[in-house]
Automatic annotation (TrEMBL):
It holds the Pfam family HTH_8. GO terms for biological process: regulation of DNA-templated transcription. This is Fis family transcriptional regulator. The lineage of its organism: Bacteria, Pseudomonadati, Pseudomonadota, Betaproteobacteria, Burkholderiales. Residues 241-471 form the Sigma-54 factor interaction domain. InterPro entries: AAA+_ATPase (IPR003593), AAA_lid_NorR (IPR058031), Homeodomain-like_sf (IPR009057), HTH_Fis (IPR002197), P-loop_NTPase (IPR027417), PAS-like_dom_sf (IPR035965), Sigma_54_int (IPR002078), Sigma_54_int_dom_ATP-bd_1 (IPR025662). One of its GO terms (molecular function) is sequence-specific DNA binding. Keywords: ATP-binding, Coiled coil, Nucleotide-binding, Transcription, Transcription regulation.
Length: 566
């Protein structure tokens, strides 16, 4: 199997060294005669009590690394040595793994490994017990027989001739289909000495399932490969803005018009109407879409950090700052869009600095005097009332002009209630997918009921309502009760005799598909509003009635209905 002192053109490649108990060489051949090798192995051998010698290791520090197989007896150490590229993996395996026989036994007897080994004449040399059992053969009876007389449809002889491996072939044997592999075996000289036939899967069905799964995954990959460039291009573009109402149609038109122009856009509208979505759509339809939009939520940054967040800072600019300094959002937004959300919440002192940057694109990091520049397109959004803030000097007029080259108002949901069916259905599907819930659907009258509500929390509130219903409805059919809107529905409800403060045209919402629930919700909101007004004006009914926009007598009537004791 292994020849000692094998010589090649490059000199002695291998050898043997036998050491006495004291590390003295008692026999040496080939590489084993090298004094350097003897000295190194002698040291290792003498220290074997401290550091036991592994069965196989590499001897370093010689002219070439040498692989050593060690066979230690009580009194002598025997080492077989060879240069790294001169070994035989089987010899190494058998020498260094003392349970190598168990591993081989496992391969030939494992109940799941049905194998047949043939020699170069296609005569059976070995058949694993499980394979013998399958063919109804007594142990060893097939040995020496032509494989074709034992295994029907065998192609082992063909594989011996072709020298080519066959993997995953279906072979029918004894009326059963099996998925098999056939492998020719060569010796180190490259001659085919035999072949192994092996059952890979017991039935093609298992392979079919696997292949169907692979096919499905391939299709999925193909889909994403096709879609990815488009999705990258489009991002959350216009198609993510659900709705076919006139209001949404106009909104989309405006987005498409303004997106390619490199002007500042201010998005106004109540909370939850979709300003964020609109900002993304504008960015995606602009030439700056190549780089991701940079987002800043002015309301979410603590006042003392707004400046550092926006302009960045130099190392050690303030306590707690990162040592190497940090890039600010303006700098990050170079060549892309900067989305300043909740700009109405920006402190006045920061407004001045932001204005300066907006005027010429230049800024300084906190703690630095170097002027930097950034070329960004600004989109800002706020649900605040700018008229009021400008009047009370809470927002700088010059900044307002800068940020609002174009202002887009995103309409509240109550102005486009005809979009509710589309939105509700899309959210139903989205949340069923997200929560892995199946087969939920809206029962009769639910969509009409949803359309009858004024949605002061807008689309975000509708979304939450549907999500709650998907999760908590006990039956597959989602009922109006499942969609009950929480009490904090609050101020948006149009009260009898009270103008809806949000509505432009004061149209009443479409008639309810579920009058009782609507009435209940209205009554609750009415009560809340009335009590809130009374608290605000410390029980002064005249002022409360004025505030609510109803007559005093109407307020008294309402109070008597609520609680005669009030
Ligand atoms: N037309 C729409 N189609 C589908 N989803 C929408 C639509 N409009 C808004 N949404 C969804 O409603 C939620 C709230 O929208 P968004 O955050 O854009 O509102 P916003 O106006 O920015 O609110 P805020 O002023 O509170 O920041 C988001 O999950 C958004 O995806």
């Amino acid at each position: 199997m292994y020849s000692v002192n094998k010589k090649t053109n490059s000199g002695t490649r291998s050898g043997v060294l036998v050491l006495s108990i004291d590390g003295v060489a008692v026999f040496a051949a080939g590489t084993g005669q090298d004094s350097h090798v003897q000295e190194k192995l002698g040291t290792l051998w003498k220290n074997r009590d401290l550091r036991p010698l592994p069965a196989m290791f590499t001897l370093k520090g010689t002219s070439e690394p040498i692989t050593v197989l060690s066979f230690a007896a009580a009194a002598t150490g025997c080492f077989v040595l060879y240069r790294h590229d001169g070994g035989d993996p089987l010899y190494e395996f058998v020498s260094s793994v003392d349970f190598s026989a168990d591993i081989l036994r496992h391969f030939v007897t494992d109940p799941y490994e049905a194998i047949t080994v043939v020699d170069h004449e296609a005569r059976v040399r070995y058949m694993s017990p499980v394979h013998e059992k399958f063919f109804g053969i007594q142990r060893g009876d097939a040995s020496g027989a032509d494989v074709n007389t034992i295994i029907e449809n065998s192609r082992l002889a063909a594989v011996l001739r072709s020298g080519k491996t066959e993997v995953g072939q279906i072979q029918t044997m004894r009326g059963k289909s099996r998925v098999v592999s056939r492998t020719p075996i060569t010796n180190p000289e490259g001659q085919i000495v035999g072949a192994i036939g092996q059952v890979m899967f017991k039935s093609p069905a298992a392979v079919e399932t696997l292949s169907a799964e692979i096919k499905r995954l391939r299709q999925e990959i193909n889909f994403y490969e096709r879609e990815l460039p488009r999705m990258r291009e489009a991002g959350p573009g216009l198609e993510f803005i659900i709705g076919q109402s006139e209001a949404v149609r106009k909104l989309k038109e405006r987005i498409e018009k303004v997106a390619p122009l490199d002007v500042s856009v201010l998005l106004v509208g109540e909370s939850g109407v979709g300003k964020d979505l609109v900002a993304h759509a504008i960015h995606q339809l602009s030439r700056r879409r190549i780089k991701d939009m940079v987002l800043v939520n002015a309301a979410a940054i603590p006042g003392n950090l707004v400046e550092a967040e926006l302009f960045g800072y130099d190392g050690g600019a303030f306590t707690g700052a990162e040592k190497r300094g940090r890039t600010g959002k303006f700098e990050e937004a170079d060549h892309t869009t900067l989305f300043l959300d909740e700009i109405g919440d920006m402190p006045l002192d920061i407004q001045v600095k932001v204005l300066r940057t907006l005027q010429d694109g230049s800024f300084q990091r906190v703690g630095s005097s170097t002027q930097r520049r950034s070329d960004f397109r600004l989109i800002s959004a706020s649900n605040r009332d700018f008229q009021r803030m400008l009047a009370s000097n809470d927002f700088r007029l010059d900044l307002f002009y800068r940020i609002s080259a174009v202002t887009i108002r995103v309409p509240p949901l109550r102005e486009r209630l005809e979009d509710v069916p589309l939105l509700a259905t899309a959210f139903l599907e989205r949340f069923m997918r997200r929560h892995q819930i199946q087969d939920k659907y809206f029962g009769p009258g639910v969509i009409e009921y949803l359309q009858s509500l004024p949605w002061p929390g807008n689309i975000r509130q509708l979304q939450h309502t549907i999500e709650r219903a998907v999760i908590f409805s006990e039956r597959n059919e989602i009922s109006c009760d499942d969609c009950d809107v929480p009490l904090e529905l609050g101020t948006g409800i149009v009260l009898e005799g009270i103008d809806d403060p949000f509505s432009d045209d004061h149209t009443t919402p479409p008639s309810s598909g579920r009058p009782v629930a609507v009435r209940k919700a209205k009554a609750q909101v009415e009560t809340d509003m009335i009590l809130d007004a009374l608290r605000r004006f410390e029980g002064n009914k005249k002022k409360a009635a004025e505030y609510l926009g109803i007559s005093r007598s109407h307020l008294y009537k309402k109070l008597s209905e609520l609680d005669p004791g009030l």
